[in-house]
Amino acid sequence: MAISLHFHKTEKDLFGRSKMWGSPDLPEGMDYPAVEVEEDGETYSDPLMFVCQIRLEDIAPLDGDGLLPHTGMLYFFAKIEYFFGDYKDYPSPGMGQWADGCIRVIYAPVADNLRTHSVVDEGGEPFGLPAEALEFAACTDRQDGFKLLGKPYFEEVEEQYGDCRSLLQLDCNDDRDLQFYDCGMVNLLIGTDDLAHRRFDKAFGYLHSF
């Protein structure tokens, strides 16, 4: 079984809780992930967009096979600004397997001594979307939508990466103006052995579309 992600706006304080978008609450000493970009002969660090943080005790009752840790926090970052319609400032990672550095998955075994890392753009505006509360439910392995674990919705992806699990699946969402080309989806894939040994740094992104 997989775990579906349902997110909604809320007035509640989401600090240290499972949440979609917003700003991550990272353990003291953990840096916000960025990718090195070379442009016009200069190199600079470009922050990845924060996707979500999962307080793992929240999903423990739905992870009967123990594929994920059940304590701590799991953080997901990805270079997906282009798919929110920001075609001018951000290039697309493209179809198929994404290049190294386009996604980051970080596991913090202990989720205390947290502090919120807020990233702003050149105009001082918050980078990304407002934070939304996350709720979880069991779903089928090949469910569409936003989900943890299971198989990619598109069978073509599984055929190519049969030894991988879909750690996180991102789908189009009209309410957030999120569109992965023509009804596409992004899967953050990880090898089964890497998942078993908690090597979340080995995860990679893959975009498939109709």
What labels describe this entry?
210 residues; mainly beta; 11-stranded antiparallel sheet; 3 helices; 7% helix; globular
The residue-averaged pLDDT reads 94
Q: Termini distance?
A: 25 Å
Rg: 16 Å
Shape: globular
Helix content percent band: under 10%
Note poorly predicted spans: none
Biggest β-sheet: count, sense, barrel?
11 strands, antiparallel
Spatial order of strands in the largest sheet: 8-15-14-13-12-1-11-2-6-7-9
Number of helices: 3
What is the beta-strand fraction?
A: 35-45%
The total strand number stands at 15
Query: How do the helices and strands follow one another from N- to C-terminus?
Result: EEEEEEHEEEEEEHEEHE
Structural class: mainly beta
Describe the protein's architecture and organization.
This protein is 7% helix and 37% strand. It contains three helices and 15 strands. The chain has an eleven-stranded antiparallel beta sheet with strand order 8-15-14-13-12-1-11-2-6-7-9. Strand 4 (34-39) and strand 5 form a beta hairpin. The chain starts with a strand and ends with a strand.
